[in-house]
Write a structure and sequence with these properties.
Blueprint lengths: L22 H18 L9 H10 L2 H9 L3
Length: 73
């Protein structure tokens, strides 16, 4: 299997939010958690993947990153 973009889940103080996911997205999240568990050797709750995945997505979005550097116009 190729290297996953998310290989570990940092332990950080959370802020609780509620999100409704489509069933297919939830199934993919569960499958991703299983893949992370196989790669890292430790079980990960699928819900613990959401924050690092969002952070990774936003940090890799060049338009978003450029907009944050420049600030709102």
């Amino acid at each position: 299997m190729p290297k996953l973009k998310l290989s570990s889940v940092p332990d950080d103080k959370p802020v609780r939010i509620t999100v409704d996911l489509p069933a297919e997205t939830h199934r993919m999240l569960v499958a991703y958690a299983e893949a992370v568990a196989r790669e890292s050797g430790e079980a990960v709750e699928p819900t613990r993947l959401v924050a690092p995945m969002l952070a990774r997505f936003m940090s890799s979005d060049r338009a978003f990153t450029r907009g944050r550097v420049r600030g709102p116009r």
